[in-house]
Each structure stands twice: as C-alpha cells, then as structure tokens.
Amino acid sequence: MAVSYKQLGFVNTREMFKKAMAGGYAVPAYNFNNMEQLQAIITACLESQSPVILQVSSGARKYADQTLLQYMGQGSVEMMRRMAQEKGVKEIPIALHLDHGDTFELCKSCIESGFSSVMIDGSHHSFEENMALTKKVVEYAHPFEVTVEGELGILAGIEDEVKAEKHTYTKPEEVEAFVKGTGVDSLAIAIGTSHGAYKFKPGQEQNIRLDILKEIEKRIPGFPIVLHGSSSVPPELVKIINENGGQLKDAVGIPEADLRKAAASAVCKVNIDSDGRLAMTAAIRKTMKDKPAEFDPRKYLGPARDALKELYMRKNREVLGSAGMA
Ligand code: G3H
Ligand code: 13P
Ligand code: ZN
Fold first, then answer.
1. In this structure, which residues have their CB less than 5 angstroms from ion ligand 3?
2. Does the global pTM surpass 0.90?
3. Which of 160, 210, 312, 314 would staple 44 via disulfide (CB 3.0–4.6 Å)?
4. Domain range enclosing 51
C-alpha cells in the first residue's frame, strides 16, 4: 500500500534549499545502510541543529532490505522528535532521498514507499534521453510534492552500483535548457568531485573546478546545485586505518576549503558517504587491534557510531555551515 512521506514526518527539499541558498550554506546529504549510521546522522544533526537529507542508494536498499530501510527512516523521525523533547531543542527537518535512482520504476517505487525526494541519474544517457527520463520522473513526482534531483555531466569513481571510468565536466551551456525542459528542483553537476576514496592521483592538481560552478550559476541564477562525491578523505582517518592493518594507498579527497566555497555559493546539497565509511572502518579496525578478545558487536560498532557522529558534527559546523540552521 502506498504511503506518503508526509505521514512519516519527512519534508521535501524545496524549503531546505531555499533557506540554504539565502543563508549561504549547504544541507548535508549523508548515506546510510544500517542502524548505527542512521543513529549517528540523526544525533549529530539534531545536536548541531542542522537540517539533513538521509540518502538511500539502490545498493543500500538491496543490502538492508527496502522495507526495513523505510521503517528505519520512519523510526529515525520518531527518535529525533523524542530526543528533541528530552534535550529541550528544536526538531530538525529531515528529508528521505533516493540517491542515484537509475530508472523511472525505482523512483516511482520510492515515492510510493515514503521518500520525500528522489534523484534520477540519467547522466549516462544522451542529453535528449536524460531530459526525457528526468521529465517523466518530475511529472510523476510533483503531484505528490516529492522533489526531484537531476544530473548533467559524469562523475568518475566506482562504488557498488555507481560506476564511471571517465569524468565529463558539466557543460554550462546545457544547464538552462535542461532545468527548464525537465522541471527538476535541483541539479547535480560534475566539476571534478568523484565517488569513492581515490579522487585525485598523486602529483595531479587536487582542486575542483569552481570556475565551471560560477559559469553554471550565471546561467541559472538562484537554482539549487548539488555536489556529489564530496568526501574529503581525512588523512588522519586513512592513517588510523593503515596503522591498524588496512591498505588504503594514495587515498585523496576534496579539499575542505573548496567545499566551503561551494557551500557558500549556489551549492545547496553536498553528498558525503565515503568519509563516513572511513570513520567507521578506522574505529572498528582500532578496536579490533586494541582489544583482540572483544567479540560483542556493540563494543566495536558503538565506538564506530561515536566516531561517525563526531565527523558529521564537524562537517555541519566547519565545512557546510548548516549547523544552527534547522
Ligand atoms: O554515490 C554513491 C553512494 O556513495 C552510494 O554508494 O552504491 O556503494 O551504496 P553505494
Ligand atoms: P563520496 O564517495 O565522495 O562520499 O560521495 C558520495 C555521493 O556522492 C553519494 O551520492
Ligand atoms: Zn553520488
């Protein structure tokens, strides 16, 4: 049976992005696949009073079971409300978003099961096919007041279900026609960020193309822009992982200074997944090494959850500027 996101306590991204644009900050979009990640995201964003977008990829839906994830999302709103009351703080807006939806059917299924926002990633198709697919999703989503993110340009990087060998920067001359022709609510662009923990090669220039972002902003002023692949791959986390048996060689992320500049501009949503994976892995590897006799999952997942919460609080406060904006 179909369920509306409004019944579950989620909001769409429209108001969030309007405020983020006016306030010169970006809303964090954090991916989750399990309970500990979800708890860390909600507690970090409530304590830092930041709006938040919970992201679910199709890989996450397969890993954790789509029905269970939907109930977890719903439960997280209830948890946030109870905690807000206990702490005497304001409730925060939470959106439930499909990350990298690749078909109309997947977007439709998510909308019917309580998502307040979906991404249709048609970036691997031709411009015309991307336009047609994105428009079809928008036409289905908008009567339910579900917001839609589209993408132009291709981000490199490899994760479970999101793969691209080659990076293609977004062409600024295409954005206006795409946004007008599809009716999307936000647009993901490719300006040098990429998925995963290996974003730049050693010796290569390690900055993103803020000049392309500027050019895009000029063509669609005031329109919400999304940055995927925005983990900064903190060297201290890579170090902990490698000192405790890991082998992450030449892992490099996006400089935080670039992300701060982007967040202050028309970028209203910043996607972060890999940094959370690194924080959890570092904490788990350290516990495993320091306490080899430990075998209660709570004893290593607990510290991983604490590390994640710290990471998200810092991002909200120091990188995205979303803390205090709920
Ligand atoms: O952009 C992709 C997200 O990080 C999700 O990755 O497909 O491995 O869940 P995933
Ligand atoms: P990272 O791999 O840089 O965390 O990017 C995540 C992302 O773009 C999710 O859509
Ligand atoms: Zn992405």
1. 228, 271
2. yes
3. 312
4. 18-235+250-272
